Amino acid sequence: MDNVVELKNLKVTFVAKQSFLKELLMKEQPLVRAVDGVNVTIKKGEILSLVGESGSGKTTLGKAILNLVDIADGEILFQNQVVNFHHKQEVRRFRQKAQVIFQDPYQSLNPKSLIIDIVAEPLEVNRLIKTEAERNERVMKALHDAGLDPPERYLYRYPYELSGGQRQRVAIASALILNPEFIVADEPVSMLDVSIRTGILKLLVELKESKGLTFLFITHDLSLAWLISDRIAIMYLGKIMEIGESDTVIKQAVHPYTQALLEVMPIPEVNRHRQRKVLSGETPNPTNIPAGCRFHPRCPHAFDRCREEEPVLQAARSNHLAACHLIEKETSQENSHD
Amino acid sequence: MKLLRVENLKTYFHISEGIVKAVDDVSFSLDDGQCLGLVGESGCGKTTTALSINRLLPPEGIIEGGEIYLESVKLTVLSDVEIRKHRWKDVSMVFQGAMNAMNPVMKIGEQIAEAVVWHQQVTHQQAWNRAKELFELVELEPGRIGGYPHEFSGGMKQRAMIAMALACDPKLVIGDEPTTALDVMVQAQILNLLDRLRKTLKMGLIIITHDLSILGETCDRIAVMYAGKIVEIGSTEDVYDRHMHPYTHRLLMGFPNIHRPKLMPEPIPGSPPDLIRPPSGCRFHPRCDYAQEICQEQEPGMTTAGNGHSYACHFGGAFNG
Amino acid sequence: MKRQYLAKKIIQSLVTIFFVLVFNYILFRVMPGNPLAMIMRNPRASQEAIERTRELFGLNQSWVVQFWIYLKHLFTGDLGISFLYRQPVTEIIVARIIPTVLMVGLAQILAIIVGVFLGVISAWKRGSRVDVAALGFSLVTYSMPTFWLGIILIFVFSVSLRWFPTSGMLTPGQSFSSTFAMVRDAARHLVLPVLTLSLVLIGEYTLTMRNTLLDVLTEDYMTTAKAKGFDDNYLIKKHALPNAMLPMITLIAINLGLVIGGTIQVETIFSWPGLGRLMFDALKARDYPLLQGIFLLITLSVIVANLIADVTYGYFDPRVRE
Amino acid sequence: MSSIDGVMRRKKLKRFWNGFKNNRMATTGAVILVFFSVAAVIGPVLFPYNPMEFGTVETILQPPSTTYYLGTDNLGRDIFRNLLSGARISLMVGILATLISMFLGTSIGIMSGYFGKTIDSVLMRVTDFFLVIPWLPLVLVLVAILGSSVWIIILVIGLTSWAGTARVVRSQTLSVKERPFIERARAIGADHSTIMMHHILPNVFPLVFANTILVTAVAIISETTLSFLGLGDPTRPSWGMMLHYAFQSGAASSGAYWFFLPPGLCVVLVVLGFTFLGYAFDEILNPKLRRR
Known about the structure:
With about 325 residues, chain C is mostly helical.
């Protein structure tokens, strides 16, 4: 199972918007550490979900992989080698293999282009087609793969004439037309109604199975992640807190943050009596990340070590990692008991 | 006496393309201190129903028929001037995108105090103190009432909106997707807050949402809407465990439940109907797997399936067969 | 934090002012048909004016030094001698400032009040007869050259109805018993020019106010305010206007540049003794030192006005913190 | 583009035409402009006019009559013929100057909006400079120095009136640039120029189009004002020049209405035509203002 994407200690930072005068006096500018040292591998043919609240850096990480955002530190290996983004040919080959689906179906298509042009654009931009016939044929196939049948009905229409679900399928068709191997799907269904959403999720899973496509599925909804992905990674303030098989992470969560997310996750059931244990406050501002474990100020089990030393991803059980000192504390207690 | 009674409400939008029958013969009621969840997908008419109560519809939206009673007062016959007295004093609202729902150039404390001064004719200083009390009630730091909306985070803005809604001790608060724009953690905080306030202040609460799964702990009753009509209404237990309408069933299946085995739900084919020329008979028939001849011709009336639980389908529960 | 915004705006204005000084320097020296050569040959320019100008511009030194001399003179207020009037330019200009400020000030105030009022009504009662009328009126006045509007008013009110004098600031050759009588006479002369200038502005302010307000009325916070049960006047006064007035402040400042253009036309037709008329005469006589002086004064005053507008905008809009 | 695409495009144009047809302002504006353009094209051919050919003493300031439909001016020249050839010049100057300022304004607006950072602040300082400088004095001084041939006037008006458009286009570009479909274009490898031409321009163009028409109105007024103040090109008598002579010869006070009324009315009507059209397009294209 070779790796499609490998992130080594990836860091992405932005310069926080800052007053004109301070800028003038070249004062040290506060940095937003959006992605703050992430090590993760995405294997071929799997859907890895990246789950986190707003401000966790999940979208920035997705954009970094696609070179839509500059990296501050660390390395991104695509199919085991670093892509040199200054070399035109190499970038073109990378673009054909790695594609993206955005969240907002109403804004991710150019309102002034016909559907046929939107879907065919990746071909034209990378100069991959010679004749018009070949172009139309590939567009029709991509629309069919995205579940828009009969394709002819959609070719010569404008985005405003389609529903949200249909537009998202056009975006998927446009991503599929280059026969990519890896797709970053950034909250692809969060703006769709439930009845339409499941259709898109089914399509993504089918594409994974039929074409062996690899997905990075970015979402804030833990239950969706559980539904469609093989592995789940929980992200908080720019770092991965926990990563493992989707069932193990949901059923045997180790990290207190994942447990808190599971606790508040809405479930379509009647549980009138249970008053949910809710974390206080909101995700702090990524310009001043707390010392030691970044979750300790809101963590119910925080102890002194959490305040000083930042925990590293370590194995809680086979291929289920978590960045939390509780793991050592428990294993050391077990050793001390025996 | 019921706190709120809505009977055969019809609200249509007159636009250039034609007449949109956004709400077409909707009836439901609410007791004092009770919480009703109004759930449905976009375009089903849930927000229009809420805006019709206070008559906050845009100019092209007109209440064509039906009655709305707030306790003994018949709202639908009141003139524009008369209905203003009931807005916020009896029925107040918490809107969705809190980012834009507050005046960006006016202090938040002022936006709360102005309603108190207007309806309860108190001095500005008294209203300002009232605003401080309300901030404490919604667990916000009273010192911050002098701040402006852009200085508050998403969660804090929503709490401020709730404080604003409670300013005149209303009998009924309507939340239009109050937690949709929030993170799941903050959403839980807000839902807990709404639940606590409803119980302590004994006020009626209507929560409008497209997310059926969040109504589990907060609502006593749930009404499911589709294409301008209520297709099923009942207690939370009725709708979750004993629902009879195929649309409610499909909607519920769409929300993955980690306590149950992992199964990829079937999407509902087709897309929401065009409300200018809605489908004949039962409006869900073009997308329903159990639709038969009669569904196309005859619109199903409300069949009762237990006390307070009724649905609009000729073949209720067909999905259980 | 507001100081940062203020500092930024001041620095930007200083940059623009420097641009203007450089532009002005080039305009009156380096442009083809070099104005200096024109002065030398201009028959009416007295020997003393030519000498003064040569020394003033330091013709023999390098242009950098000339530029430095130019700046030095600017700051000491010495803008050279107008050879049309054979007086220092500064003195001529100072005498003409009051009439122009009076006229422009009155016209602006009148236009803002009427424009905002009309704009609010037509936005609030959109599509009604009032809206259509206000819109029609604004578009017509917006499309009318100022000077032509002036001529029409003269033709109607002065020539035909004889209500107002056709030109000048005071009735020539009339002795006034009291200052009040003089003021009354000046006021009668002022009516038509101010009316002309403000009519043109009212159109633009009404249109902008209407569009900005239509934008604001679609915002969510207006629905929230309406839900609170306030009546229409309160909604407009306390919620819609404060948000709609912000863009108006910037427009009024930027608009000042165009108003000066209007002033030149109005003062020419009504021979109103202000800066506009002065510029027109200087232009006809190709009196460059005077032309340059007026041009500089007008440009700098517009920049200052814009700075004041930016500051007031920053003061009223709490979001302008960072 | 195959025929089907032609059908789609016609369908969209048809929808636009309906919106246009029942918009009273747009139709009145269009009718006025068509009338004047026909007059400007055919007029001088049917009724040639030579500004240098003066009339005799008797023909000076004649009121309208069968021979001189609109009477004669202070030099005995036929006002009606002057009016027709004036139409051609005023429209030409207005339109050409606008093209220059639209081209400059749009490209500067898009570039500073799209690239941001240093390019944006530099271009914006220049734009502010032109916005802040009082327009008429600047043009007066420039024309006074550069000479007042009609081509110089076109250039001067064009080069000094693009700032407003640049500001409007820049803010529209900033809002379009934030939309995800631009990021999608970058993700599939489109370079800056493709994104600007293929994605940003089509989405900015409707606003530019409406703005162009309004700027034409301003350009025509500018030319007329310039000529009125005596800086027009005497060899090419525009309506402004006619008004200049009318005012110089005291037509207003002497009641020679046929001398100063027609050119003024023509200017106002043409400018009104453009303003109505421009404002109507703005209302049709601008979603916020559109009547539901």
